[in-house]
Amino acid sequence: MRTLAIGDIHGCSAMLDDLLRAVKPTPQDQVVFLGDYVDRGPDSRGVIDRVLALRQTHNVVCLRGNHELMMSRARRDKSEYKMWTSVGGMQALGSYGKSPGRAGTVNDIPTEHWRFIEEECINYYETDMHIFVHAGVASELPMDEQDEMWLFWEFLNPTFPPAHRSGKVVICGHSSQRSGEILDCESAICVDTYAYGGGWLSCLDVDSRRYWQVNLIGQVRTGVLGHPR
């Protein structure tokens, strides 16, 4: 069984399709999505549809990202709506439009998708060796005492990466690596490799440290962290 962590997708459904074809997860594998399914890319709706479909046949853990938080809050608050639509929410709404080129509204988002975002995604996930979280952790706090700023908003500082009190390696997204390279800080590994911005969408087998990456034009590359590609 592999434990596979997938970084920030941000509406790039075609890249997710290519990545899953490359990785070939089996029902025995555990697939952990690190959040930020929506916004910025062209097909937030399609990304959520694909994740929901994968859950029907595979062992899938879905974390919540800061963009899901913003999307949820925008549903009820006009000021939050303005914030969300300024950082990628308009692209998400575009994927829910009833006709090409015409953006949808929050009322066009299916109940199933709201349930996924607001109720079914979780804030973090732990195994014996790893902590999976969207953004980061406060090193000195147990996971059930972490606050929103750390879980969803803090950016990874590679000079002073979090080393959690548990000794577990933190697997995160959120801090976009515009180089397209997974950032390995030993105590923390960032799998967000700037998919929506012309980078790569990445998946990491956290035990073997093998990774797979795909880009916007369908290229696939793979390697092992710590070894030259």
UniProtKB/TrEMBL annotation:
One of its GO terms (biological process) is RNA decapping. CDD domains: MPP_PPP_family. It comes from the Bacteria. Residues 1-174 form the Calcineurin-like phosphoesterase domain. GO terms for molecular function: bis(5'-nucleosyl)-tetraphosphatase (symmetrical) activity; phosphatase activity. Transmembrane segments: none annotated. GO terms for cellular component: cytoplasm. PANTHER family: METALLOPHOSPHOESTERASE, ZINC-DEPENDENT ENDOPOLYPHOSPHATASE. This is Serine/threonine protein phosphatase.
